[in-house]
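sanity check both lines:
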Amino acid sequence: MTPCYITSEMSEDLEEALELGLEAGITTVHLRKGLFGKEVQDIVPDDIPRLQDTFGKFGVSVGVLMPPFMKFDIDDADRIAQHHEMFNSVVATAKALGTEYVRCFPFGGAADVDYSPARIDDYLGRIVENLTPSVRHAETEGITMCYEVVNSSIARSAADTRKVIDAIGSPAAKVIWEIDTAWRVGEPPSEGYGHFKSLIRDIHIKPNNNGEMDPVGDTGEGHEDAIRRLQEDGYDGFITIEHWKGTEGILKGLDTLTGILDGLE
């Protein structure tokens, strides 16, 4: 497994973020914002040489690009069209920076409906229809679309997200398993993992209310349990510390994570 962090959560200064990460032994990063004053979806071809030089200078690889692709109301048709254009731009950036992974969302806008498990079924056709142009572009360009489990999207759990992936029906569609998010809607890690263990390309690890990695809410389970299960099944993708409240928090999370990973060897 490859431990990662999001550069802007370490520092808004990209070079400082990379230097701090290297001091913690981390050589793969995800990109959201703080890219010499730009967010990842705003990068243009003229920005690429500076980014390439910077990552080369520090010997750091890029893992996942994290634009807010389709993280908004599914009824906003104009914005959907804009996001397909944005996706094309992010794909070009990903290829220039040597990665195939782009973070995606299966829309929001279901806040006014029942949150029972079956509610997502009414949205699957629309989700697929509105994602299809970018899915086809990803297939053509060899890009992996990593759909993140997150409370603000229509798919709020691993079970929901698996329904979306199956409906999309594309080899380009994979997932980011966000364990903390899923338990908040009643899905413990051991249950969520079974829905898409072969589809996972990244795992997001957030701190609990005490600022620690474990336990995961009131599930009686821990991230460490999930990590060991992943290791037993041969998972060799990314595993990411996210939202640990500033540089000190990110470094604490990375230290805890790398300690667990070292213990697996």
In short: The two ends are 11 Å apart (CA to CA). The chain has ten helices and eight strands.
